[in-house]
Amino acid sequence: MADAEFTHEGDRCSFETLVFLTGLETDPALRALGEIVHDLDIADARFERPETPGVSALIAGICAGTDDDEERIARGSTALDGFYAHFTRRKED
């Protein structure tokens, strides 16, 4: 977001910037999420993760399901928690 504390920085989207500035960039699950968010936000297909189209559809579905911003945030947060758990478990496999 323009003029926000955390925004695009260099070639990173806001999510990647937040992860970097908090020192969490070594977390493989957050790195995977950051790559997905990057491609959705910046739309440059830099990472081309296979999960990106599914995440995009999920977000579109959340937005189509309600106009309430608080509900969208709650549903999106739950979804991202699930993706984080998936990527965390996957690194152990």
Q: Keywords for this structure?
A:
globular; 4 helices; mainly alpha; 0% strand; 93 residues; single chain
Please specify the SSE layout and strand pairing.
Layout (H helix, E strand, L loop, with lengths): L13 H8 L6 H15 L9 H14 L3 H24 L1
Helix pairs in contact: 1-2, 2-4, 3-4
Can you walk through the features of this model?
With 93 residues, the protein is an all-alpha fold. It has one domain (27-92). The protein is 66% helix and 0% strand. The protein has four helices and no strands. Helix 2 (28-42) crosses helix 4 (69-92) and helix 3 runs antiparallel to helix 4 (69-92). The chain is globular, with a radius of gyration of 14 Å. The protein starts with 13 loop residues before the first helix and ends with a helix. The model has no long low-confidence stretch (mean pLDDT 90).
